[in-house]
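Final report, section 2: Outcomes. Of the targets proposed, Kinase-like domain-containing protein is the one most frequently requested by collaborating groups, and we therefore present its record in full.
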Amino acid sequence: IPVHGWWRDKKRGFIPMEAHILRTLDHEGVVKFFDLFEDSEFFYLVMECAGTPFVRPDENSLPPPTSVFETVRKAAEAPAPLPTRCSSPARGDGSEPTLPHVSATRNREKHRRESQDLFECIERNPGLSEGIVHRIFVQVARAVAYMHESGFVHRDIKDENIVVDSQLRVKLIDLGCSAPIPRTPHAYFKSFEGTLHSAAPEALRGEPHKGPQQDVWALGVLLYTLAFGCPPFRDPEQAATGVFCVPMSVRSNGLVTLLRKMLCVELEERCAMGEVLEHEWVVGGGSRG
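The predicted structure is given below as tokens.
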């Protein structure tokens, strides 16, 4: 963990910045934090288990998806077998036979809850409808906006850091690169620590940057990936130019317009998170389902 990746806690001393940020946040779109433990070598963050595989409802050849969590919950709520009383004609002392103790859960099938990130969801469900793209994107955008309003930037927004469940509810995870938003230009970020294919041009150039605009750029990369099934840029050199291809007649003009505003090289012209949430495509619910 780098030096700036620590937070000085009044009670526990230095703890990972990720733990501090997670325990500060409380939003349905951000994974919940429960506790923090440490030993002589590691810190252990206890968080909710989020995400289950999503299968598109139009895949009629497959049975409807069932949440593994629901299966486990029903099994746990099943009544335990009642003790059995019986008489044995073979015993002449009138006493009841001793029955071996049987655990109510011995024969109960154990499940490991399967999680799924957005990368896997896109890979398994190519060609998501625009309605689904909109539903996923808006949830992520609201979670990122909440982080900014709370004084933090994520700094590593990508499909692998978002989990999704069978009901298309998503949550941001992995806040290992997250940090408080710098209050002065002197404290601006001078390096990039996220994933290279989501890095904004200013970060690629090594220019000091505040952070929220980097998150907007990364959200633009995510939106493009959701809409077209691949990243907008093949390498950092192309990303630095901000030039990307839009397949014709595949997505609505509203979605493409938002993409161009989010993936704008010039910081002054790139939209802020508030503008993203107020954009006509976001507010309108996506023009194609």
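The CA atoms of residues 59 and 125 lie 10 Å apart.
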